Amino acid sequence: MYEGTASYNEEYVLMTPPRTGGRYLFTILQPHGFLGGGGGEPKRMSHSWSVPEHAKDFPRILSVRNPFSRLVSFYQLIKNHWQPNHQYNKNTFEEFVDFVTERENILEPLTHYIDDGTYIFIHFETFEDDFHSLPFINNEEVNLLRSITDWKSYYNNETKEKVRVYYAEDFTKFGYDDDF
User: Fold this and answer.
1) Which DSSP state fits 110?
2) Where are the beta strands (DSSP E) in 9-163?
3) Is the pTM higher than 0.85?
4) Distance between CA atoms of 136 and 33, rounded to whole angstroms?
5) Parallel, antiparallel, or unpaired: how do β-strands 5-7 and 119-123 relate?
6) Among 18, 48, 14, 50, which Cα is nearest to 34's?
């Protein structure tokens, strides 16, 4: 499990699970001390979702995304950028949904990353507004994240239901509609 990035300047932990806009968030928060490894030089971005032991009392910033859109984003990443023979690379989206929802540790629900700490959620879909709600941000400009506009077209009733069940807690916790 990767460790979240703590900022000792702001006293927050940044947690960036895969396919949630975390790379961009990590990049624009580096000037605020989110450098990784206890400060110093910026570390290479890695998806992070555990709280460093020395920052257990810090509030957490967690990037989140609609589960339907997040799964399509991961599917597109694999189809377009990974080796064709990779174990995650499936022939159809239906096979991919089965693969993800029938196994652990592939594209886990974001609620699996949450502990008893205090959280600020940065939603992929409302990134700019959520980013500006961070208490240490002062009118900094951000670019809107690019979203997959046709993610709904990937789903049929069966895949929609599998995603609804597998990510049920995410839909509830982060305020996403589980139907479209």
Assistant:
1) G
2) 12-15, 60-64, 119-123
3) yes
4) 11
5) unpaired
6) 14
> Domain 5-173 is classified in which CATH homologous superfamily?
P-loop containing nucleotide triphosphate hydrolases (3.40.50.300)
What does the buried/exposed string (b/e) look like for 147-174 if buried means 16 or more CB atoms within 10 Å of the residue's CB? beeebeebbeeebbebbeebbeebbebb
Best CA proximity match to 49, nearest among 66, 61, 31: 61
* Unique residue bearing structure tokens 């790379």: 23
Q: How many CA atoms lie within 13 A of 148 on its CB side?
A: 21
- Which among 83, 65, 47 is positioned nearest to 146, based on CA atoms? 65
pLDDT digits (tens, 9 = 90+) for 67-102: 999 999 999 888 888 666 666 667 799 999 999 999
